[in-house]
Amino acid sequence: MTDIFEAIQRTAKRIKIAIDTKDIGYSQQENSSGETQLQLDIKCDMIIEEEFSHVASIHTIASEEKEHEMPMHKAGKYYIAYDPLDGSSLIDVNLSVGSIFGIYENAFGAKNMVAACYVVFGPRVEMVFAHHKTKLHLLQDGEFEFVKEIRLKEKGNLNAPGGTQQNWEPYHKELVDSFFSEGYRLRYSGGMVPDLHQLLLKGGGLFSYPGTADKPEGKLRKLFEVFPFAFIYKIAGGEATNGHVDLMTLSHKGIHETSACFFGSKYEIARVKEVYAKNR
Ligand code: F6P
């Protein structure tokens, strides 16, 4: 696992340089989710693919920017699914973005996840790696330094509601509003990585991306976004659900499948489950 951890650190340093220096323009290609790919997305995907190609323990990779899985080393045992630059449309307004990595053993799938990691590219570059503990690292003078272990409180005070409100189910709106009525504050940038990072570091709250009339299975991808964050939140003492079951119990069909998702502290996720149970 150390070889993978170190490879991710190398990708983060190179992606930081790419973000700082690369011209931003739209490429003509669309990715598998139908979004126009930024040149920077493609560049970051290539950086990660190249760094992982040097790691013998990696058997197969799957990227948000690639249609299909890509085999790497036959003798390796790890399967890594990654989103090279999540929230990349925020780059042109200079908001934070991130890379997300789900590390699976022997095959892709929530039950095979053994570690997860994300890197936030904000005013500072930070990396959170969850294996047996969720640990925060900061890039300083060209190297990642361990900062602290991250633990969520039982209850937070931030509310990050995703999705198009017009298409929310009425009970979902009531759920979101119920937290605001309790004094929770709105924190939503439209970047999954910085939004979930903020909740983790400020002690907790709720990040929701529900199924909606236009997207019944939500927007966020299981292998690259949902499972890694579910794993990270659970190791940090929080919870993750699709409204009914623990996200880490879900299966997946294909590498780009999506799921409704809720991440938070125990208190908020208990409320989500209660409201969703009544509205099955
Ligand atoms: O996956 C892409 C993404 O940009 C996430 O980083 C983010 O949480 C979400 O989409 C935002 O979607 P919306 O604009 O629909 O709230």
- State the distance separating the first and last CA atoms: 40 Å
Q: What is the H/E order?
A: HEEHEEEEEEEEEHEHEHEEH
Mass-distribution shape: globular
Query: What is the name of the CATH class of the largest domain?
Result: Alpha Beta
- In the CATH hierarchy, the architecture of the largest domain is 2-Layer Sandwich
- Please indicate the percent range of residues in DSSP E strands (runs of 2 or more): 25-35%
GO molecular function: fructose 1,6-bisphosphate 1-phosphatase activity; magnesium ion binding
Pathway: Carbohydrate biosynthesis
Keywords: Carbohydrate metabolism, Cytoplasm, Hydrolase, Magnesium, Metal-binding
Binding site for substrate: 86-89, 188, 219
What report would you give on this structure?
The chain is α+β, with helices and mostly antiparallel strands and 280 residues long. It folds into two domains: 148 residues, Fructose-1,6-Bisphosphatase, subunit A, domain 1 (Fructose-1,6-Bisphosphatase, Chain A, domain 1); 120 residues, D-Maltodextrin-Binding Protein, domain 2, CATH 3.40.190. The chain has six helices and 15 strands. Strands 4-3-5-6-7-8-9-10 form an eight-stranded mixed beta sheet, with helices on both faces. β7 and β8 form a beta hairpin. α1 packs antiparallel against α2 and α3 runs antiparallel to α6. The longest helix has 20 residues. The termini are far apart. The mean pLDDT is 94. Bound molecules: 6-O-phosphono-beta-D-fructofuranose. The site of 6-O-phosphono-beta-D-fructofuranose has 9 residues, from loops.
